[in-house]
Design goal:
Strand content of chain B: 5-15%
Number of helices of chain A: 14
Largest sheet of chain A: none
Shape of chain A: globular
Largest interface: A-B, 54 and 55 residues
Structural class of chain B: mainly alpha
Oligomer: heterodimer
Order of helices and strands of chain B: HHHHEEEEEHHHHHH
CATH class of the largest domain in chain B: Mainly Alpha
Structural class of chain A: mainly alpha
Order of helices and strands of chain A: HHHHHHHHHHHHHH
Chain lengths: 338, 316
């Protein structure tokens, strides 16, 4: 009672606001629980679902394999499943500071090779599967992973370029960063899917997945550059002076003294950037790739299952939320440590 | 020889950078010209004057019909983008500020609920949320005949929201409402989605801004005998605003850029209409150039305005 008085009903206006919120919760929460759990239908049968009152989780039960793996051949689903587990494992492994050593790169190369082998096949008696058939969760994860990994060197170059004292290099970097950050990602994706074929010499073609990946890399690089620049600016000036005093040439000064410190400072911001990119990959749906959100949306096209969009998108939200919330917890753990 | 002097190296590096940029540009442009010639696509903006031949579901300010030109269609798209962005910015600022303040409240329930809100909304992609709200409106709402009427004259149905205006009141005629002011399901879903999503980010900015104000400031104001409301309005807010405005600018820019996701739920914004135009005319380069030019202009104007405002509230 004392707790309630101190924390809920401090003053008259507060009590009034509280009663309003409690009334609102009372009106919305029980019906929601009825809908989502008590009256929910788990049986994968659309007729039962349409007759019932509650949420139709049967839709997810029926479609979860398509949602997770897209149009990948049904009997080979263990391959993307294993690839997903390996990729998530690699991320979890890289999250520990103790493993931030040069050999971590080797672990990644090895892991990604295994994932490539599993997804494409064609060796060791695995059937070949062309990447037009990849889809679902693994596609979302791969677009994010390669997006961040390949944008990273470009982002570092742009950040250094923006802080350079050479006007031409600074101008080019600022121009690139501001241009990319000024336009929506969707326009870059359109550009990649429509204009990239025109940019290349006649006869050279690249598939849709690669085109989207290129757009994501070019997009992510501009945002990463700004985060890294923040890190560069946060280093005490004495570090720059000391490196100069040692008479180290530019690249050794940058590689040995400046960058390691700048990146360490930028880690929480980099993780936040990673979360944003993970969410942004959902936009590839608009240019017709089968990422996680896309497979959810396509599942709703089947006549038997149209009209269960609320359930479908709640499920999609939950999957994205689990990944993003874990990452943001991780990012916050750095703030506590310092 | 040049490499011996630092000055020589600087010039060489910069010359190399210009050379590389020009080489890339030349490579892309020459390929594009060759490809366009081969595919017999005429380039140029002449197509803008031609008749568009497609209808647009809704137009915020301009009159439009299929007999109008592509240019007018694109202007309608731009006006729709601006309409949703401006209303969204106003609503998101209000909601975001309220949630950011609740997050700091001494009240347990308010604090927890707003923390959950921020945590959940920020960790789900906006596109998923847009699809969700669109599904809620088109699937969850009753048809026009059983429309919900929370206030007299206001009707909620799967055809959108209908408000009365000074001159007319919406009435059910046949299968839908006639009269009053109508908000389409697409516009409503986009506006709700953008507002709720951006508000979560604004709430965090507001919270950080208020926490950045030194505790002593509030205590000093209290010692001067100012009330809590006066302290917030006269002491805390003016100081917090200096911290809040720069990140707020980028949220406004994000909201405007994010409104381009309208194309996914069928609201006729600029990107969606430019997309239709590109599909009909094949003028992909021009279409994308228009989209990029417009967003760059909007981005630069919002940042120019916010820089001016920021200079006004900054310490002198």
């Amino acid at each position: 009672m004392k707790w309630a008085r101190a924390n809920l009903f401090g003053s008259w206006p507060e009590t009034l606001a509280m009663l309003g919120i409690l009334w609102l919760l009372w009106k919305t929460l029980p019906p929601f629980i009825d809908w989502a759990f008590l009256d929910a239908i788990w049986k994968p049968d659309s007729k039962t679902c349409r007759a019932g009152e509650g949420a139709c989780w049967g839709f997810i039960v029926e479609k979860y394999r398509f949602i997770l793996f897209g149009t990948y051949p049904y009997e080979l689903h263990w391959r993307p499943a294993l690839a997903t587990v390996i990729l998530i494992g690699l991320w979890v492994f890289s999250a520990f500071r103790a493993f931030w050593k040069p050999w971590l790169a080797l672990v990644w190369v090895l892991g990604l090779s295994v994932i490539g082998l599993l997804m494409w096949g064609g060796l060791f008696g695995l059937r070949y599967v062309e990447n037009e058939r990849w889809g679902g969760l693994i596609l979302t994860l791969l677009l994010t992973t390669f997006g961040i990994a390949l944008a990273f060197p470009l982002g570092i170059a742009l950040a250094l370029g923006r802080r350079s004292d050479m006007p031409v290099i600074r101008g080019l970097s600022v121009g690139y960063i501001e241009l990319i950050r000024g336009v929506p990602l969707i326009s870059l994706l359109f550009m990649a899917s429509v204009m990239l074929p025109l940019f290349l010499p006649a006869g050279v073609t690249i598939d849709k997945l690669l085109r989207a990946q290129i757009a994501i890399i070019l997009f992510a690089a501009a945002y990463l550059a700004e985060v890294i620049r923040g890190g560069l600016q946060a280093i005490p000036k004495g570090q720059y002076d000391a490196a100069h005093a040692l008479a180290l040439p530019f690249w050794r000064r940058t590689g040995l003294i400046i960058l390691p410190q700048a990146l360490r400072i930028a880690v929480p911001a980099l993780v936040n950037n990673f979360i944003a990119l993970f969410k942004d990959t959902s936009l590839v749906l608009i240019i017709g790739l089968f990422d996680l959100l896309s497979t959810v949306k396509i599942s709703l096209n089947e006549p038997a299952w149209t009209g269960f969009g609320v359930e479908a998108y709640l499920f999609a939200s939950l999957v994205y939320f689990v990944f993003c919330a874990a990452l943001s917890k991780y990012s916050k753990s750095f703030e506590v440590r310092r | 020889m040049v490499w011996r002097s630092a000055k020589g190296r600087r010039i060489a590096y910069q010359a190399a950078a210009i050379g590389a940029a020009l080489a890339v540009a030349w490579f892309l442009i020459s390929n594009t010209m060759a490809n366009l010639e081969e595919r017999r696509i005429a380039s140029g903006f002449g197509f803008l004057a031609r008749e568009s031949g497609f209808e647009i579901g809704e137009s915020a300010f301009l009159r439009y019909s299929a007999a109008d030109s592509y240019l007018r269609a694109l202007l309608v798209g731009l006006s729709n983008t601006l309409a949703v962005a401006i209303i969204g910015i106003v609503l998101a600022t209000g909601l975001g500020a309220a949630i950011g303040l609740s997050r700091l409240s001494k009240n347990f329930l308010l604090r927890t609920l707003s923390a959950w809100y921020i945590e959940f909304i920020r960790n789900v992609p906006l596109l998923v949320q847009l699809f969700f709200w669109y599904a809620v409106i088109t699937e969850g709402m009753p048809g026009p005949r059983e429309a919900l009427s929370p206030l007299p004259g206001v009707f909620l149905s799967n055809r959108g929201i209908f408000f009365p205006t000074l001159s007319s009141v919406p009435e059910l005629q046949g299968f839908n409402f006639v009269g009053g002011m109508a908000v389409s399901p697409e516009f409503a879903a986009l506006l709700i989605g953008l507002t709720i999503y951006t508000a979560a980010f604004i709430a965090e900015i507001v919270r950080a801004g208020i926490l950045a104000v030194d505790r002593g400031q509030g205590e000093a104001a209290h010692a001067l005998g100012l009330s809590r409301a006066q302290t917030t309005r006269l002491i805390i807010l003016p100081q917090a605003l200096r911290v809040i405005i720069p990140p707020m600018t980028s949220q406004y820019l994000n909201l405007t850029k994010n409104s381009s996701l309208a194309v996914a739920i069928g609201y006729p914004d600029l990107v969606s209409i430019a997309n239709t135009t590109m599909n009909q005319t094949g003028q992909a380069i021009e279409g994308i150039a228009i989209i990029m030019a417009v967003y760059l202009t909007i981005s630069l104007s919002i940042s120019a305005f916010m820089n001016w405002y920021n200079a006004r509230v900054a310490l002198r």
